[in-house]
Amino acid sequence: MPEGVDQAAVGAAAVKAAGVPAAVRFSMPSPIGTLAVSLVDGKVTGVLIEPPRKVLAAYTPFIELEDESEFLEELFGRVSEYFAGVRRRLEVDWDLEPCGVSGFARRVLKETSKIPYGRTRTYRDIAAAAGQPDAYRLVLATLVENPIPIVIPCHRVTTNKSGIGSFIGGKDAKRWLLDMEKRSAKEMAAAGVT
After folding, report:
1. Catalytic, out of 154, 168, 173, 180
2. Which tens digit of pLDDT belongs to each residue from 67-98?
3. CA distances from 117 to 46, 111, 188 (A)
4. Of 88, 143, 81, the residue nearest 112 (C-alpha)
5. What is the fold, at CATH topology level, of the domain defined by 100-190?
6. Which of 3, 20, 167, 171 matches a 20 to 30 Å C-alpha distance to 49?
7. Which residue ranges does the chain devote to CATH 1.10.10.10?
8. pLDDT by residue (tens digit) across 152-180?
């Protein structure tokens, strides 16, 4: 790229030309409560589960968005299909940069994002994969602050003892997600879907 050209501006222009809104905040219903989703340049930068009313007021309900681009329609459809148990991967880009996540926490979230649909890993598994095998308590602390749950499936991380562990959306929501994924994975396997 020629010297003096603002790469961020060029990237933002390319995203806009593709019909992707530069920044948008919308809310949508889900079986585990209202989701508030933040996007910047086509990347998910935040997901809140059942945010307080004051926080939710900053998000436009999806059905009221004035600029419902094809991109946003596709994203809404993917999330809806996931909750219906017919989509294993959301296949959305995400960005932790605006959240200020770095170092060990970033590695934890990256390793968590690799957990396959319908499967779980323990806090210790994630600590080891992130390079600090004894830091499982830090893994727990990181995951209960996950800025983009569902997209980074922290609900798939459980204790190595009985119980499912904590979740940013609450234990009932975590149990629902785990049960839905397990049931859906079995149904897909029985139908020969990989």
Report:
1. 154
2. 668 889 999 999 999 999 999 999 999 999 98
3. 21, 14, 11
4. 143
5. Arc Repressor Mutant, subunit A (1.10.10)
6. 20
7. 100-190
8. 999 999 997 778 999 999 999 999 999 99
